[in-house]
Amino acid sequence: MLQTYFRDRPEPGRSLQHHIHERLVDAILDGALPPHEPLPSSRALAGMLGVSRNTTVLVYQKLTEDGYLRPVERRGHFIHDQYIRQHLRKPLKTRTASLFAPEAAPTPWARLLVSTPSRNPNIVKPANWRDFAYPFIYGQTAADRLSLARWRDATRLTGTGHHAPVWMVDQVDADDPMLVEQILSRVLPQRGILATPDQVLVTTGSQNALYILARLLVAPGRRVGLEDPGYVDARNIFAAAGAELVPLRVDGDGLVISPALRGLDLVYVTPSHQSPTSVTLALERRLALIEAARTHDFLVIEDDYEQELSFHGAPRAAVASYDNSGRVIHVGSLTKTLFPGVRLGFVVAAPELIAEMRAYRRLVTRHPSAHDQRAMAIFIAEGHLDAHGRRLRERMSRNWGRLMAALADCLPGVHVTPTTGGSSVWCRLPEGISAWDVNRRAARRGVLVEPGDIHYLGPAPAGDRLRLGFSYIRTERIDQGVRLLAEAVAELGG
């Protein structure tokens, strides 16, 4: 019976030792092995699986250390008694339900739920987006093998005796002091921001920061200004808090500073690379936004999620760097352009606001993973985050240049919003052509593109916009991908 657990080959990137260990644990927890008979000897198991005896010896040693097996002198390895008495994968039996009368109808969740966020308009990416040969998808980053190796080094150091005592304990509402120091000394100065530890909060990504801010600063009736088009999840977060959403116009220089700012309580802006158009907020508008906040008495949330992706010259200093009134709340990400799945971000704001955010975060998540915080602190301290940024800018600049050239050559009828950085381009299709029609026809050719209507706040969103991400697709595939996209547009008369 044991052989049935080894029919599958090890997954790519996993060692034989890990594979054998996992399969034996499965067999033990399933109760598939005779409890009073020894497992095959390490030599016999090695012969059965076609691996070296050293591999099976190490597996048995680890299973013994973890308490799954117990060695018996001259007899071999037996399943530990606790797994004979109770196989963990067999559900506990209970007769509690029999004490009550049968339920007449299913639980009325539609009446009981006070909120249904699943109904929000959201960006939906195909689950199989990796299968597309030409994925012009936004928000996913191709693996940087050198950064991945450096991250593994950082996580190994995190597990050493010097660092482990810091993250093994519950930090309650505190942040890793080493990571806070690295944010203050290495990350913020590149944005022109000077801050103190009581002005910084670590979050589970920048979106977590937006949620906490919305819960503390927004209530029914408060007016929140949002870029239109803008970031969909920010819109949903503020709407869930009861805000009255006010669309604010965006042009080639970012958010338009206009009389529409009057009467607002809060303005949300993405200045480095506006979401979704990727345009950069001009310096004069950054200064004008701060002056408007003072004049009209509103707060500004600056979401600088892609600050490092500027291809021509140094990145612009953050809006918060020009603010001396404490009205600008700076939100950033440490992992969006590194490993989006790690989810680490930060907020820089007045100490009074940070204190309340910390208290609220304690109610929701207590604190982000202390292990990941320390690993990131080591990663930054050893210079790997800066090195990753340099490599990423070089690769993204190549992709951006190749994509812009290919669009100009193959799709001259498509208007592309000029940008100087970011990880996507914003396109307007020829008149009368639907972005969703292009999406479906392009998909048949292995090209994944994202319609832009979801980003609009107004009741009649533009249906001719496409967002083309270039952070995941390989450089050498861009030209052919755009040619196939052009075929899809031509079929529709463009």
From TrEMBL:
<keyword id="KW-0032">Aminotransferase</keyword>
<keyword id="KW-0804">Transcription</keyword>
<keyword id="KW-0614">Plasmid</keyword>
<feature type="domain" description="HTH gntR-type">
    <location>
        <begin position="14"/>
        <end position="82"/>
    </location>
</feature>
<dbReference type="GO" id="GO:0030170">
    <property type="term" value="F:pyridoxal phosphate binding"/>
</dbReference>
<comment type="similarity">
    <text>In the C-terminal section; belongs to the class-I pyridoxal-phosphate-dependent aminotransferase family.</text>
</comment>
<dbReference type="InterPro" id="IPR036390">
    <property type="entry name" value="WH_DNA-bd_sf"/>
</dbReference>
<protein>
    <submittedName>
        <fullName>PLP-dependent aminotransferase family protein</fullName>
    </submittedName>
</protein>
<keyword id="KW-0663">Pyridoxal phosphate</keyword>
<dbReference type="GO" id="GO:0008483">
    <property type="term" value="F:transaminase activity"/>
</dbReference>
<keyword id="KW-0805">Transcription regulation</keyword>
<dbReference type="InterPro" id="IPR004839">
    <property type="entry name" value="Aminotransferase_I/II_large"/>
</dbReference>
<dbReference type="GO" id="GO:0003677">
    <property type="term" value="F:DNA binding"/>
</dbReference>
<dbReference type="InterPro" id="IPR000524">
    <property type="entry name" value="Tscrpt_reg_HTH_GntR"/>
</dbReference>
<dbReference type="Pfam" id="PF00392">
    <property type="entry name" value="GntR"/>
</dbReference>
<keyword id="KW-0238">DNA-binding</keyword>
<dbReference type="InterPro" id="IPR036388">
    <property type="entry name" value="WH-like_DNA-bd_sf"/>
</dbReference>
<dbReference type="InterPro" id="IPR015424">
    <property type="entry name" value="PyrdxlP-dep_Trfase"/>
</dbReference>
<dbReference type="GO" id="GO:0003700">
    <property type="term" value="F:DNA-binding transcription factor activity"/>
</dbReference>
<dbReference type="Pfam" id="PF00155">
    <property type="entry name" value="Aminotran_1_2"/>
</dbReference>
<dbReference type="InterPro" id="IPR015421">
    <property type="entry name" value="PyrdxlP-dep_Trfase_major"/>
</dbReference>
<dbReference type="InterPro" id="IPR051446">
    <property type="entry name" value="HTH_trans_reg/aminotransferase"/>
</dbReference>
<keyword id="KW-0808">Transferase</keyword>
